[in-house]
Amino acid sequence: MRPYPIFITTMFCLFLLSCDSDFKDGVFHISDPVDPYPELRPDSSAHKQYDSLLKDELAKEGISFESLEVFLRAFKKERVFEVWVKDANRPEFTLFRSYDFCAASGSLGPKRKEGDYQVPEGLYHINVYNPYSQFHLSLGINYPNASDLKRSHPTSPGGEIFFHGSCYSIGCIALTDKIIRELYVLAETGHLNGQKKLPVHIFPFRMNEKEMNRYGKKFPEHVPLWKELRPFYEHFEANKTVPGFKVDNKGKYLKPV
Asked: 102 an active-site residue?
């Protein structure tokens, strides 16, 4: 008997558990009634591989590893994942890395229901650091956030959205094992330096006028959300600082603050 059907079925189940369910095998959450960061013990192999290299590269940017702050941006259409860095004593971020997605599921538009396999779109932060991931290492975001909870399915909005290793995805962004090791070290270092809510912006595309017009015609149902997110994209493009945000009682993102 050939093993391929069993293998494929097993992998599919793993995807569902990892990227779009409430399964909590080995994952620590902010809301857990125990220390939410026991997993922030240094991952010795990743740190051994990247600490020296990253320290040297950051030093060239005038950034100390001990005062590193990190901001993450992802663009779904371009399939690009950006890592921006700065020293805690400086206001502006500098682009440090730009990775290509290895895999991501769904189409343009936000995640609205468990099982829709969409990558979310919106303003988030890292709330899970998981060195025990079945996809090597993973960083989880706080989907559903305050906006998503108002706009998504009332009882099954989905969850467990990660940036992880490997090259398989149903609702997550896969970056390969090599990239997630470097990214994990950077994000972990930012957290240990005081970034308890390391910011993450996920956009459908680079939100200039041309792309807004192009994709607004193809996906008119998502235009209201995209118009709310665009000022946050423009603010960062102009200032290289991450704005704060508020959400109204209908889940609408208000202007950057």
From this structure: no
